[in-house]
Amino acid sequence: MIDRAPLLRLVLLAAALLALPAAAQEKVLNLYTARHYQTDEALYANFTRQTGIRVNRIEGGEDALFERIKNEGANSPADVFITVDVGRLWRAEQAGVFARVKSPALESRVPPAYRDPRGQWFGFSARARVIAYNKSAVKPGEIRDYEELAEPKWKGRICIRSSSHPYNLSLVGAMIAHLGEQKAEEWLRGLKNNLARDPKGGDTDQLAAAAAGECDLAIANTYYMVRLMRSARAEDRAMVQKLGVVWPNQGNRGVHMNISGGGVLKNAPHRDAAVRFLEYLASDQAQAYFANGNNEWPVVPGVAISNPELESLGKFKVDAINVGLLGKNQPTAQRIADRAGYR
Q1: Could you tell me the pTM of the whole model?
Q2: Which of these, 39, 67, 135, 190, is most buried using a 10 Å CB contact count?
């Protein structure tokens, strides 16, 4: 008599596999990302080498991607949404598009200040918002804190981009958290009165204006400065050599930090791959990519990096506030900036 049991088991296994959703069998990750840095290609390629999971990437502006995710709803193919500002992460959290992730790896490696307490999003790289100064016009130690930017001595001497940009909204959000809304608005009025020109351009434009003597102080994220230091263009390197850097509020709360981060979407068709991707972004190797490739600070403490220009900025104390509060404060930050006349 022929034993048909093994054949039957094979048939049943094949039928079970065919019954699985197609997405569950795919080794793929669909990533919606507002990061547009060429150096991130190495991040994705290395993840695929390590896991065999292919990364399908859709790049775009944060607001456009956020609206797309909401419009796609339960049919969205997106697994992970990555932004370059905590304000967009907070908005996505409030809109209910993120899933809660319970991951011992993420919870142990990403500091509490850089992640949502409920596990809806995690920061993976950080950028400090510093004060750059023209060395020929400002002495070292002449300005130490963000609060001093509102002092009359700096009238007509400051360059900064628009108040509506998320980097500045997050900075103002931090000022609200530390000073309260009323004092933060008073600070903004003083800052606005001290501008050398109407806000225009990005952070690099503010640095260029300070180096050219159009203003004496410029507010910018550190990775823009390091990008100029590492530029292949001699004129960029010469420009940044004219500038010094102030790490604000080192005698008290520490410098303001913002993050680039992301979360797993609640309708992710490849949830396991999405969690593995976030855990990979918190690995030593990926953290080093953020620093070495895009001049950002790793969020994981103690990661070894190889970026002499970034390291040349030295050690500094960071504001330990949970960055989610900066996102929460952004709507108020925009209101008080408008009232202060800072556009």
Answers
A1: 0.91
A2: 190
Residue 299's CATH number: 3.40.190.10
**Is residue 67 located within the same domain as residue 145?**
no
Query: In whole angstroms, what is the distance from residue 183 CA to residue 17 CA?
Result: 62
Non-local CB neighbours of 325 within 8 Å, separated by 6+ positions:
173, 177
Residue 265's pLDDT band (cuts 50, 70, 90): very high
Cα(163)–Cα(201) distance, integer angstroms: 12
C-alpha dihedral (213, 315, 34, 229), degrees to nearest 10: 40
- Are 330 and 213 in the same domain? yes
pLDDT tens-place string over residues 114-147 = 999 999 999 999 999 999 999 999 999 999 999 9
Q: What is the DSSP letter of 28?
A: E
Residue 274: which domain range? 23-126+257-305
Domain contains 13: no
Q: What share of the chain is helix, strand, coil (3-state, %, to 5)?
A: 50, 15, 35
Q: How many Cβ atoms sit within 10 Å of the Cβ of residue 49?
A: 9
